[in-house]
Structure formats: structure tokens, C-alpha cells
Amino acid sequence: AMQKAPAENLLGGRADVLNPSGAGNGHVPRNMRLCWVLADSVEPYIDVVNAADVPTSVAEGVAFNIVWRPGGAFRADTTEIVCLPPGGGASVCDVEDM
Length: 98
Prior knowledge:
two-stranded antiparallel sheet, 1 helix, 2 strands, about 15% helix, about 10% strand
């Protein structure tokens, strides 16, 4: 009852920190994952899955696919993409749901 710190063998290690079933799981990796979830929940972002296939600029009429995963929230009901010309303005793309 007076022990205020876990035994060293329960602290965990550096191996596979993001995996709760990983070899290095313990108190420290678990707390790191909890902090990651908290930070992740307050700043939305997207992860472009096929980034290498997405052109940095395109001519009118050129079609390409973008695949993305939303993050930084506990749940994303919908996402959408908006294409803007340099300097802003109206959307310059047609978006098709796949």
C-alpha cells in the first residue's frame, strides 16, 4: 500500500510502443498511447494513403484518385475534398464518391 511506483519490470520498454500487445508494453508505453489519443483528438488531419500517386498540379480535365483517412477525431461521419486554384476562389474540381 505504501509503494508509489510500479516495479521496473512493469514500466515497459521501447519495442513496439504503439502496440498494446507488443513486447515492450507496460505503464510508460500505455501512458504514451493515452497522451497520443488526447493530442490526436484535438487537431484533425488527413493521411493521404496514395500520396505518391497524387499530382502536385494538373491541367483541366485530368482525372486522378485521392484516397485518404481522417484522423484527429474520435469519429468522422463524412469528409470531402475541395480543390481551389492558386490564390483561392471557387472550387475547380468535380468530386465523385467511390
